[in-house]
Automatic annotation (TrEMBL):
Protein name stated in the entry: Mitochondrial chaperone BCS1
GO biological process: chaperone-mediated protein complex assembly; mitochondrial respiratory chain complex III assembly; protein insertion into mitochondrial inner membrane from matrix
UniProt topology in membrane: Single-pass membrane protein
Subcellular location: Mitochondrion inner membrane
Gene Ontology, cellular component aspect: mitochondrial inner membrane
Keyword set includes Transmembrane: yes
Domain BCS1 N-terminal: residue ranges: 46-215
Reactions it catalyzes: ATP + H2O = ADP + phosphate + H(+)
Domain AAA+ ATPase residues, every copy: 246-353
SMART domains per UniProt: AAA, BCS1_N
Family indicated by similarity: Belongs to the AAA ATPase family. BCS1 subfamily.
Length: 362
């Protein structure tokens, strides 16, 4: 049933306590609101909505404050070395709960030359729970939907570890265990690195060290090079005192199959060094990137430039528009022996045709 129209008592308003315009408006407003059920109901809903919104904001702020006070996060980006260490460690850790796994396929070369396939099940994208030294940790592996690693074509990833603030010191213990596990897998083996964009990454699984005596060269050549390299490694202070660049280079030449690369592998195994292989013919390799890579070679590593004669057909490689295409000859010389070249660096170059090399390189 329709409600009758509400009337306003102007006499009551006129006799308001203060007799002012403010009192007139106040009395009129109270008269309308107090006697209008629709207005009263709408106002009640408005007030209720406002109260709920304020309460929600208060809860969100309180939960955020509590989160910051009680919990701590650790982010491990995929470009960091410890990223792969942690995933490998977690794949072998028993006290974890993972419902989403990813497979990583690698190839293992055995001493007899045969190759087998190895499948590693690592935590996939999503959330996982583990218990480490009595503390629970939430592991969240996220994959970026926008950023992609152009060198590998895979999206960037981040692993975020969350635990109680009081247990934050366990992060360091966990990463140290992951590192030690990775190093243990490389004991007695040689790691082969290749360039991926601006950084060095392991190529395949570490290889069993090759015995130095297994490579047959002309009498005394292998032993002479080994002695020279060891003398160089023990003479760092001598180089620094005299202001001489602390680097050493060797050129191995001979027909294909004469043992050049095999000797370098055996030498690295004898010295307990790894090998960084750089392909100078790669189109995406520029002078700047070459300099960056040579100045960021992993510790205890030999730099190997294979088939150096095939890398340059002429001193300056430019396309029809005049732009540099790959590494220039002058860029290589600067990287090997320029002002910005790396210190404490051992470089080996190999060639099948030494007569084709530019004299400036020798």
């Amino acid at each position: 049933m329709a409600q009758p129209p509400q009337s306003i008592d102007f006499d009551k308003i006129r006799n308001s306590s203060d007799g002012t315009f403010k009192g007139l408006v106040s009395s009129g407003f109270n008269e309308i609101v107090g006697n209008n059920p629709y207005f009263a109901a709408g106002g009640g809903l408005m007030v209720l909505g406002t109260v709920l919104a304020v309460a929600r904001q208060g809860v969100m702020k309180s939960s955020g404050f509590i989160y910051r006070q009680l919990l701590v996060d650790l982010e491990i980006p995929s470009k960091d070395k410890s990223y792969l260490w942690f995933l490998e460690w977690m794949s072998k850790y028993k006290h974890r709960s993972s419902r989403h796994l990813s497979v990583e396929t690698s190839y293992v070369q055995h001493d007899n030359g045969s190759v087998s396939t190895k499948f590693s099940l690592v935590p996939g994208p999503g959330k996982h729970l583990l218990r480490y030294k009595g503390a629970f940790m939430l592991v969240n592996r996220e994959r970026s939907g926008k950023l992609i690693d152009m060198t590998s074509g895979t999206p960037f990833e981040t692993v975020t570890l969350t635990t109680l603030y009081r247990d934050r010191k366990l992060f360091g213990d966990m990463l140290l265990e992951a590192k030690q596990l990775a190093l243990k897998a490389r004991e007695g083996k040689t790691v082969i690195y290749t360039s991926w964009g601006p950084e060095w990454r392991p190529f395949g699984q570490p290889k069993t060290k090759r015995l130095f005596e297994s490579v047959i060269l002309d009498e005394g050549i292998g032993e002479s090079i080994l002695k020279d390299v060891r003398d160089f490694l023990n003479s760092g202070e001598w180089y620094r005192k005299r202001g001489i660049p602390y680097r050493r280079g060797y050129l191995l030449f001979g027909p294909p199959g004469s043992g050049k690369t095999s000797f370098i592998q055996a030498l690295a195994g004898e010295l307990d060094y790894n090998i960084c292989i750089l392909n100078l013919s790669e189109n995406n390799l520029t002078d700047d990137r070459l300099n960056h890579l040579m100045n960021h070679i992993p510790d205890r590593s030999i730099l190997l430039l294979e088939d150096i004669d095939a890398a340059f057909n002429k001193r300056d490689q430019t396309d029809e528009k005049g732009f540099n295409n790959g590494v220039t000859f002058s860029g290589l010389l600067n990287a090997l022996d320029g002002v910005a070249s790396a210190e404490e660096c051992i470089t080996f170059m190999t060639t099948n045709h030494p007569e084709k090399l530019d004299p400036a390189l020798l």
